[in-house]
Amino acid sequence: MDLLIGSVFILFMALSLGLHLFSLPGNWLILGLMVLWRISHPEAAAGMDTTFFIIAGGLALLGELLEFGVQLLGAKRFGGSGKGNVGGIIGALVGAVLGAPFFFGLGALAGALGGAYAGCLLLEIGQGRPFDVAARAAKGAFFGKFLGLGIKFGIGVCLVGLGAAQIWP
Prior knowledge:
Elements: H1 2-16, H2 26-40, H3 50-77, H4 82-99, H5 107-126, H6 131-167
Helix pairs in contact: 1-2, 1-6, 2-3, 2-6, 3-4, 3-6, 4-5, 4-6, 5-6
């Protein structure tokens, strides 16, 4: 029975990775599932001690920080200003929320990427920068957001691997 329940937990953790496509907190759900496993199976989860959860929580937090940090670096590398970066971050959040109802929720990903571009572009133009310079900075925000999401997803894969190693009997 523990084999079946462990398999279901691992499956749910792996499926949680799909939440990244909807701009939802998949890594935090994976961490929550690991906590739930630890609480419900204390004898089977001896390796899931405080250190394990500090590392797993640190990885989830690192994923969030890198997602936004890489977006900031992308826009900056392509000539974006500080205000353009703020516009890219706000645009990504607004775009993800506005895009969520479309394409069965997959619009959130397109909305986040397009919002990063549009938000950075609008604030760069609003500062009086030429369109071609603003568009280059916005392209950096777009690519940075895309790369940041990829890094966050990769960290989620690591979290699933860490959890599965402790859950699998």
